[in-house]
Amino acid sequence: MSTTPDEHKADAPVQIRCAVITVSDTRTVETDTGGAEVVRLLTESGHVIVEREIVPDEPGRMRPLLESYRDNNRVDVVLMTGGTGISSRDQTYETVTALITKPLPGYGELFRMLSHQEIGAAAMLSRATGGLMHRTVLLTMPGSRAAVRLAMQRVILPELSHLVREARR
């Protein structure tokens, strides 16, 4: 007998342990509005922030940090903001996708579809992506507060517990 998504959600963990990473060469904790919004929304939803970092958009800095979160039993989910564009400096997509063992193409597709409703065709410039690094959920989003709010409220938070439940199976 198969189960429904609602049954999965009912069986999912309530409090998720999250690492939040802001990818930026210029932001500080004081000026990081996107990362602050991720933290606020997670906390208001009853989740726990176990790590928060700001790192430059450099694979040599991002990759070891992501691997450490992947290997840390205290981290269920890594949420990254920033670095998802197409400028020559944006390397987050390439770094993240090299570490993903099970991609979730629907995450980026859904985010861009919803983003298109708000900002039009410019939504195609976002390379928001996600998937699993073994059993750790990893999702990226643009750095603007509006994009973070859209991703968190419309895509991530409604399924976060469900994603973790499935990743643990």
Description:
- It is built from six helices and six strands.
- Helices cover 46% and strands 19% of the residues.
- The radius of gyration is 15 Å and the shape is globular.
- It has a six-stranded mixed β-sheet, with helices on both faces.
- The mean pLDDT is 94.
- The two termini are 17 Å apart.
- The protein has a single domain (14-168), classed as MoaB/Mog-like domain (Molybdenum Cofactor Biosythetic Enzyme, Chain A, 3-Layer(aba) Sandwich).
Q: What is the CATH superfamily? A: MoaB/Mog-like domain
Q: What's the helix count?
A: 6
Largest beta sheet, briefly?
Answer: 6 strands, mixed
Number of domains: 1
Q: Which architecture name does CATH use?
A: 3-Layer(aba) Sandwich
Radius of gyration: 15 Å
Q: Helices and strands, in N-to-C order? A: HEHEHEHEHEEH
Portion of residues in beta strands equals 15-25%
Structural class: alpha/beta
Let me know the number of strands. 6
Poorly predicted sequence stretches spanning 5 or more consecutive residues = none
Distance between the termini: 17 Å
CATH topology: Molybdenum Cofactor Biosythetic Enzyme, Chain A
Q: Per the principal axes of the C-alpha atoms, what is the gross shape?
A: globular
Largest sheet: spatial strand order: 2-1-3-6-5-4
Q: Could you outline the blueprint of secondary structure elements for this entry?
A:
Layout: H1 5-10, E1 17-23, H2 33-44, E2 48-55, H3 59-70, E3 77-81, H4 92-99, E4 102-103, H5 105-119, E5 130-133, E6 136-141, H6 145-168
Parallel strand pairs: 1-2, 1-3, 3-6
Antiparallel strand pairs: 4-5, 5-6
